[in-house]
Amino acid sequence: MTKPNKQIKRQLLNILFLVILVGITVVVLVLSNRELNFETVLGFLRKCDPWWMAAAFLAMIGFVTFEGMSLHFILHGLGEKPKLRSSIVFSTADIYYSAITPSASGGQPASAYYMVKDGIAAGKASFALVFNLIAYTTAIIVIGIVAFCVRPTFFGALDSWFAQLLIVLGFVVQSLLLSFFVACMFCGRAVLKLGNGIISLLNKMKIVKKPEKWRNRLAEEVAKFKDCRSAIREKPLMSLANFSFNLLQRVCHVLISCFVCLAAAPSANFWDLFVLQAFVLVGYNSIPLPGGVGAFEFLYLHIYGIAFGDAFILAAMMITRVISYYLCMILSGVYTLVYHAHLVKKMGKKIAEEGKEGENTNEIGESTDEKGAGEQE
User: Fold this and answer.
1) Does 26 fall in a domain?
2) Does the structure show a pLDDT above 90 at 32?
3) Overall number of domains in the chain
4) Is 159 left (phi over 0), alpha (psi -120 to 50) or beta?
5) Over the Cα atoms of the chain, what is R_g?
6) How far is residue 65's CA from residue 360's CA, in Å, rounded to a whole number?
7) CB-side exposure of 195: number of CA atoms within 13 Å?
8) Is 300 in contact with 313 (CB distance < 8 Å)?
9) 168, exposed or middle or buried, with CB in 10 Å at 0-12, 13-18, 19+?
10) Are 127 and 228 in contact (CB under 8 A)?
11) Residue 55, number of CB atoms within 10 A of its CB
12) I need a surface site. Which of 74, 102, 162, 377 has the fewest CB within 10 A?
């Protein structure tokens, strides 16, 4: 019996980590809310308008598709020509592996892997992901700002100081990330000088053991963002498309919850729902957990309490979470797996064809040798 390789073990550990997080979240919800039961959810679903629910599913598909289209346009702007179905797998791989890895750290490496397998140069793949990350971070900040402008009183109306803290922390984290990206693009030398100083300090404190490794990594990251600066200046349309698709992706994610709520409560105000979910979006992005598991549920319960009762909120949250996270993760995983199987099959055919060509070459060589020997006789 063969032992599972490291990649399979890592995948199983990631899934186990996610299952534990989900289990803890469900237990906490059950213990703290007596109204959380399947009858409540079924009752919610029975009164839902199927058209609004269909719209929620379409918004989930849009969430996956728009990231793929963003990467598609970036790569075409770099001179690469991936097919749209390949670009979609770059998105599904990112979503699936982000959903099952601690701190959502596996998404970008998985996306880069499939780009390289598709024949895209590693440097361009890395650039596309970094460029997309800048627009992704900007889109979250823009949606949060719009939410505050549309309903400025909602934040103060929240009954949980911890929910307010998470929302503020979300803004701070995303703003610091964007500031770092901008600093790398326009003040690369200063970032390197500061970063190298911090690495040296951490090395003296025995926290960082291989300072040269970290300095090289920092230099590589700064170089990537410098390339992004050139792209923004030289290809403004590509930059605009990148930001637009990322903004649409985040809006689709917000719309899933809006449509689920409207399915059960058609009289609810759309902009109220949009603002509430935007607060949830900003808040759970402050927690480095896959899908913000735990943080999402906490924020949803305390933010939507402004407009709805507990039973409604619990049912809407569970259905929203199933569509926006679990179903999205499953569909992304299946699409990625099917594409991966296609790649394996394609590589197998290529190896077989190369083997046949080698055999034919050998046969031609052998027949030539035999002919030459016959002429000598």
Assistant:
1) no
2) no
3) 1
4) alpha
5) 25
6) 45
7) 21
8) yes
9) middle
10) yes
11) 18
12) 377
pLDDT for 277 equals 96
Q: Residue 376 domain-assigned?
A: no
pLDDT of 119-162, one tens digit each? Answer: 898 888 888 998 999 999 999 999 999 999 999 999 999 988 99
Residue 224 has pLDDT above 70, yes or no: yes
* Tokens encoding 295: 């943080």
- The tally of CA atoms less than 13 A away on the side-chain side of residue 102 is 7
pLDDT digits (tens, 9 = 90+) for 226-264: 778 888 888 888 889 999 999 999 999 999 999 999 999
| Residue-range definition of the domain harbouring residue 249 | 47-188+242-344
DSSP secondary structure letter of residue 205: T
Spatial distance between the Cα atoms of 202 and 58, rounded to a whole number of angstroms: 48
Cα distance between residue 47 and residue 39, in whole Å:
13
pTM above 0.90, yes or no: no
Token pair 């992901």 is found at: 129
Per-residue pLDDT of 36-75, as tens digits, reads 566 777 888 888 999 999 999 999 999 999 999 999 999 9
* 360 inside domain: no
Tell me what the mean pLDDT of segment 184-204 comes to: 86
Angle subtended by helix axes 50-77 and 236-264, to nearest 10: 170
Q: Are 256 and 56 in contact (CB under 8 A)?
A: yes
Whether 53 is in a domain gets the answer yes
- Rounded to whole angstroms, the Cα distance separating 137 from 93 reads 19
18 contacts 297 by C-beta, under 8 angstroms? no
**Sign of CA pseudo-dihedral 98, 101, 106, 111:** negative
